[in-house]
Design brief:
The chain is of the alpha+beta class. It has two helices and three strands.
Length: 102
């Protein structure tokens, strides 16, 4: 019997007091993307229970990994069609200036 594939699942959370949204990618073995999302959403609810003023935004995306996690493994990927030049694309979707890093 083959083992279940690995999935990276991205979930979005709202931290009300901090006024920020958080994207978390968690790893799961599952028989399907739907099963991986269901497991990640269950963990998302647990995550919110231990933190004050954090809510799950109800958004999850799954990415089936090619093989098992390891050094340099790709755990999540999302492709988006856009005609924007690279710098403008990054500023619009990833480096808006409102990120909290570190």
């Amino acid at each position: 019997m083959a083992s279940s594939p690995w999935y990276g699942v991205r979930c979005v959370f709202r931290h009300r007091v901090l006024g920020v949204y958080e994207e978390r990618v968690t790893l799961w073995t599952a028989r399907s993307p739907d099963e991986a999302i269901a497991r990640a959403e269950a963990e998302a609810r647990e995550y919110c229970e231990v933190l004050d003023e954090v809510e799950y935004a109800g958004f999850a995306e799954a990415f089936r990994m090619d093989g098992a996690p390891g050094e340099g493994a790709e755990v999540f990927s999302l492709m988006r069609a856009s005609g924007l030049p690279s710098g403008e694309y990054v500023r619009r979707f990833f480096a808006t200036g409102d990120e909290r890093t570190g």
